[in-house]
Design goal:
The chain has a domain at 9-129 and 208-282: Beta Polymerase, domain 2, CATH 3.30.460. The protein contains ten helices and twelve strands. Strands 1, 2, 3, 4, 6, 7 and 8 form a seven-stranded mixed β-sheet that branches. The chain has helices at 9-31, 39-48, 64-77, 110-115, 140-157, 162-165, 170-187, 190-200, 223-226, 245-253; strands at residues 36-37, 59-63, 82-85, 98-102, 106-108, 121-132, 206-211, 221-222, 230-234, 237-241, 272-274, 280-282. The longest helix is centred in the first third of the chain and has 23 residues, at 9-31. By secondary structure, the protein is an alpha+beta fold.
Amino acid sequence: MDNQYPPGALERVQEIEYHLLAEVDRICREHGLTYWIDGGTCLGAVRHKGFIPWDDDVDVGMPMEDFRRFVKIAKEELPDGVSLHLMSTDPSQYVLWGKLYQENTTFVESDANEAGCNECVFVDVFPYIRLDERRDDHGVGHLRRTQLWTKLIYIYRIKNPNVLKSLSWHKVALVGWRTIRGALRLVTNQERLRHRFERACVAKRPGRWWGNPSAARPYPFYETTLMPPVELPFGELTVFAPHDWDKFCTDLYGDYMQLPPVESRKTHAPLVLDLGDGMRYDRRGE
């Protein structure tokens, strides 16, 4: 197993994620919760009518209020073997959104391995927040405030981050990273950082722009781009997508119908992969 998947494994990962997405859709429809397929999952639905062929994750977004309801309902209504994991209830988590796990599997990425988080094949469930428009910047400043705490938690948990490995000055950057990490661990803890993130999510003057407070980059979306969601086919499923999915995809990806070059078609390429079929792949010793 190199940077690609062993034969047939990617298709099995997608199949498991497809069924997890179906559970999200079922619960949200039955309880009147608003959600939409997010990021590359939306792009896949628009461009490929399902998964991007080389993609190995599913992203879902929903307003924070619906996310909180989803968390409560999921505890009671998810089928056996499927569970929702959050940092607030599972301290091994190193991200600030929900992860829906297929429990009889293992899917450990490099960052999860560094954080000591034994992940399963998952669907990411992102809460979106209404953004503060005090500075007339469509909420970009608000997203940057939330992302500060996202980044600090990431530094707190990750000792050897992938994000630095491509830098020519990797060793210098790593010394700085570990210095900040050591200082954080002296003065605070994960729970305090999580609470600061949650406080930063609350807008003092909420407007009509929305964003994912834990996204890597500050992308605000006007509310009519996201809501009300509309239905799109995703394989044999019909799921909800952002209301103006064309603008959504254009904002994120530009000319989104143009396929990227082969060398840019990245996967998460897990270090450890076990799909519950008796085969286990472990690259941690490489």
